[in-house]
Amino acid sequence: MDKNILTKLYAWIDERQDEIIENLCDVASIRSVSDAKSDVKPYGQGCLDVLNKMLEKGNATDFKTQNFDNYVGSILYETGAAKENTIGVWAHLDVVPEGEGWTMTEPYKPTLKDGLLFGRGVGDNKSAAIGTFYIQQAIRALNIPLKHNIELFLGTSEETGMSDVEYYVAHYPTPKFSLVPDAGFPGVCGEFGRVQYDLVSDTTLSSDIVDLYAGSVFNIIPNKATVVLKKNAELDLTKIPQENFTVTQTEDLVTIEAAGLSRHAAMPEGSINAIYQLTKVLKDLPGLKASDQAIFKFLTDVNEDSYGTFLGFAKTDDISGQTVSSGTVLKVKEGHVYLTNDCRHCVTDTNEHIIDMISKTAAKYQFHLEVLLQSKPAFIDQNSQAVQTISKIYREYTGDEEKEMRIGKGGTYAGKIPMAVATGITLKDEDVSIELPAGHGGAHQPDEYISVKGYMEGIKLLATIILNLDEVL
């Protein structure tokens, strides 16, 4: 790619920094948590509102836009190439629930402080939508010749299973090659297999357990878990640790709340699973029935680590790395306990094997398995021209000779779309120095933020990758 063209492109993007951030704040102010149970189909009013907002921006700048039945939208920069010669860039406009404990701003009031933009979705993944939208505008404004059309796809339910993109792939043609800026640079050329599942108790809790709950979405390790118990004379509350536990009492009830440290379930290292913290205490708490304690012991054993060891499928391979699996949502239905688990397994294992191992282990402890969703491992040859091009551009742009394209644990649209790789939208900003509480600042965490400097550099790097892929594909 001609360096003079890149210089002009970078300058065009830099000159519009304030405008880019303003547009990102505009879409990040919309609470777009996907809700398939909403009366507004398919994913609720918030997701529809943010999709329409992005399509309005595309229309206002004279791009061709399309709404694919409210599941996915697109903004298309046409170059005159045939429809099949399209490079797709996929972003998702839905976000995880805001959670609790925000300290820098309210979740949906994006706030700029000391070069950092705080707000739910500013990093994951509305930044990719706005960044790509400006790349399209820059290419058009500078009249950069391309062999491929550039189409920005806008999903609305990535965080809750990706049925949005599954719907699109089942009903509409996919691009020749796709980028998904929902991972770090240089990116991932494949994805772990995934099994999301419930472990359900065959027996019911006793009436002594009034309520039991934790977590809200399957891909976040919860930072709070709660049980409500009927008071009885044999309950020994002195056995509950003072640190990271809160106990409140009424005349008839005892509420015990355990605190943990949340992280994305794909990267559980450093997290403290509040479900594990709570059940570890309940399994031995004097005053609880043995049948209840047995259920709590099983839940504790499942969450003893985040690798599926107790359930029998822990594995690591040289191609992709280590399988992870964590219990993330806990609830009770008609007395039966449901523990939702998020498993991402290495590419040399299979969904069938993991499901078999879980089923056999659960049955030994009077639990059974209910599979909620699954996807098989998918990856592109690391020696392919596209993957090598992305790696080369990353090295040239950053000077980083160590990072390589890898196979990722984080589930992105790339695992659902033919000929797709995930890459980044924000480069790490080494100048960022901020003190936040543990478990804050990252994707899916309170005080989610991005560095504006790192974001602007990431947009320019993504643009460079797109232009170079246009030449080699």
Q: Which secondary structure elements does this structure contain, and how are they paired or packed?
A:
Elements: H1 3-15, H2 17-28, H3 45-60, E1 64-68, E2 72-77, E3 86-92, E4 111-113, E5 116-118, H4 126-141, E6 149-155, H5 163-171, E7 177-181, E8 188-191, E9 193-201, E10 209-214, E11 224-230, E12 245-249, E13 253-259, H6 274-282, H7 290-302, E14 316-317, E15 321-322, E16 324-333, E17 336-345, H8 351-364, E18 367-375, E19 378-379, H9 385-398, E20 406-408, E21 420-423, E22 449-451, H10 452-472
Helix pairs in contact: 1-10, 2-4, 4-10, 6-7, 9-10
How would you describe the overall organization of this protein?
By secondary structure, the protein is an alpha+beta fold. It has ten helices and 22 strands. The chain has a six-stranded mixed β-sheet with strand order 1-2-6-3-7-21. A four-stranded antiparallel β-sheet has the order 16-17-9-18, covered by helices on one side. A four-stranded antiparallel β-sheet has the order 10-11-13-12. Helix 2 runs antiparallel to helix 4, helix 4 packs across helix 10 and helix 9 packs antiparallel against helix 10. It is elongated and about 80 Å long.
- The 3D shape can be described as elongated
Structure classification: alpha+beta
**Largest beta-sheet characterization:** 6 strands, mixed
* Count of DSSP-assigned helices: 10
- Average the pLDDT over all residues and give the rounded result: 96
Helicity, as a percent range? 25-40%
Cα separation of the termini: 14 Å
**DSSP strand count:** 22
Which percent range describes the beta-strand content?
A: 25-35%
Strand order of the largest sheet: 1-2-6-3-7-21
Stretches where pLDDT falls below 50 for ≥5 residues?
none
- The rounded Rg comes to 24 Å
